[in-house]
Structure prediction request, 405 residues.
Amino acid sequence: MKSKRLDFTSSSYVEGEKCPLAKFGHNRDRKKGKKQINYGLVADTEGRPLLIDVYPGNTADSATLLPMVDRLQNVHGLSKLVLVADRGLLTTKNIKVLSSTEGVDWISALRSDSIKTLIEQTHIQPGLFDEVNLFEFSCAEEYPGERLIACRNPALQFRRITERESLLVKTEQELQSIVDRVNAGRLKVAGKIGLAVGRKINRYKMSKHFILEIDTGHFAFRRDEQSIRKEGALDGVYVIRTSLPGEECDAPSCVRSYKNLSEIEKAFEVMKGMTLKVRPIYHYVENRVRAHFFLCLLSYYVEWHMRQVWGELTFYDTDKGFRTDPVPPAERSDSAKKKDSKKRNEDGLRVRKFSEVLSTLAILQKATYRVGSGETTREFEIPEEMTPLQKRALELIETIAVPNK
Prediction:
């Protein structure tokens, strides 16, 4: 039996004007008026890319998951799958289908409105986070057969509180300008006051946190402290949901698996960035577009392995270790911090960005000399003298293990 835990992320987007796959759709890169091509990526828990597929640009993210599961099971022979995907892919409809699919389990997260409902129903008691930042519970009525794991990230909680306070202050400044106009007698009619408030109140999406008083020649406002406290109960809270039984994957492991989706985001960043340049697309034939994406996948596969073995030459953290508490943000190891401060590794070599190490190898040359003519011709090579960095980089590449066929 073949078994594999896989991270599956939602489609990302590229430009493609004349290809049959190019369609208008929701563009995450916020490029309005451009056709696009969607693609989905499958990777293992370490971020190693395994599979890529391409879809028309108007394909919904949720519609890409089930065909990929079928492909993994029936084409690639994986009889046991654990899918780790975001909330946009693991919709209620997809979860119902996966629940009846043999050999498939999944890990995802709840949306904020669902978390709010669980808090209101007291399934999640915010007071418990004073003692622990992770606890498991169940809600058989709404989530039958699922395990729910509530987490509170203190760093995210602080950031949310700070951001909300900043937006509240900015909204108050906007509303105070209307109060000044009303007090100065420049704005008297209640209807016009309401229109002016309407243009200001939701500029920063904070209207739900204010109580307004509007009358002829009068306007006042104050914060709705109850609404703010109610929203504050959600600060830093997220809930992981999974179909995996506890004996196969405990609560901390489920959280770690979901947070590993960040490795997929790194893959998209590399593929869409200046390194691999998956976009723009210049092919018009569908098969060539698919070949283009497949070559980009192979390129990233090679780059992923190079990044791993070149960790000592770059700022990559090679000593991440195992964290017993997966909820707080990951911190760089002591060795990585030392490397950051000194800009040198333990061997004294200056650490660089991955692209810089790659560039140092690009300038290497191998000259071949030919002496004589006819049957007396002799050839010999004079390799260019390598720097310590170039030599070490090539030595590390030789350590990449070749997988068994």
The first helix runs from residue 65 to 74. The longest strand covers residues 36-44.
